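Please produce the structure of this protein holding NAP.
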Amino acid sequence: MRAVIHDRYGPPDVLRIADVKRPEPKEGEVLVKVHFSTVTRSDTGLRSAEYAFTRVITGLVRPKQKIAGTELSGVVEAVGADVTQFHVGDEVFGIKSGANAEYVCVLESGLLAPKPSGMTLTEAAAIADGGLLALTCMKPAYPLEGKTVLVYGAAGSIGTAAVQLLVHHIQTNVTAVCDTNDVELVRSLGATEVIDRLREDFTRTGTTYDVIFDAVGKHSFRRCRHSLKPGGIYVTADLGFLYHVPLLSIATRFIGNKRARLGIGTYRKADLLLLKELVEAGKYRAVIDRSYPLDDVVEASRYVETGQKTGNVVLEVSPHGP
Ligand SMILES: NC(=O)c1ccc[n+]([C@@H]2O[C@H](COP(=O)([O-])OP(=O)(O)OC[C@H]3O[C@@H](n4cnc5c(N)ncnc54)[C@H](OP(=O)(O)O)[C@@H]3O)[C@@H](O)[C@H]2O)c1
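Below is the modeled complex.
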């Protein structure tokens, strides 16, 4: 099968398409023919070893996981022994490392779910990563019900997911901050108010919030703290702040009445199923910036690495049906 291989850390050019052995489903596993995948910020960050500490998990010298990619949608091709919830021909979506490939094996109990009805396979490939990360990164600020929340970086993958989840699932008032080009999109996701960051600095409006969620890590706690209400909390999703936010987190426990926390994203099956429900209830949708054929993965990766994408970038792995 064709797959995107990264066998060394580095810029997008280290990615190459190669023919590798198709996996066979073992007991409890589902073999998925991948139709669409994505290139995420986590994919580019792990490929370039953007944060050196990630090498402890992904391989000190070379990546242990040679096939790139995380998100997928596709059709069940075969099932291993004892698989009961999935059947050949089912349309599915989910998360599995090595998803930039024509086939992938996923545990039945793993991050795989039936594709939401009323959604295309293209769209289904682009909802899981941002949605699951937004739900878990915002956890330090939970419970969010009834609070006023500002989402900074609202047009990114995590940002667009956070706005939709806060408005339609958690049901809070959301002020979203993005640039001029994305104002209408972010408004259409349900934000109560949208601030164009190129025209207005939210820290100078005098408005204060219970929670500021920096979904792209471009605003520090220091710059945000005057925009927090007493008892308010700042949460950043950017792992680049790993070096100082944990210290800030301890310090703000003892000093002042505003707190800073690092949001750590994790993937949970329950959240994947929640996303499916929300899509089917018309409360969540995919935000796709561009799609690239699998052969253009280097170009797709370069674009994602600019940090300027709106929502998600899809990779067409086998787009023309089974
Ligand atoms: N904590 C975790 O566990 C975890 C896990 C995965 C990823 N991450 C991190 O989470 C962050 C967000 O990921 P993502 O995939 O959502 O990012 P993304 O989709 O690449 O974010 C792109 C958006 O960021 C906004 N942006 C770019 N430069 C900006 C600036 N200077 N000021 C304000 N906004 C700016 C742009 O929106 P506008 O230009 O419209 O404002 C753009 O739409 C990344 O730093 C990623 O590394 C964290």
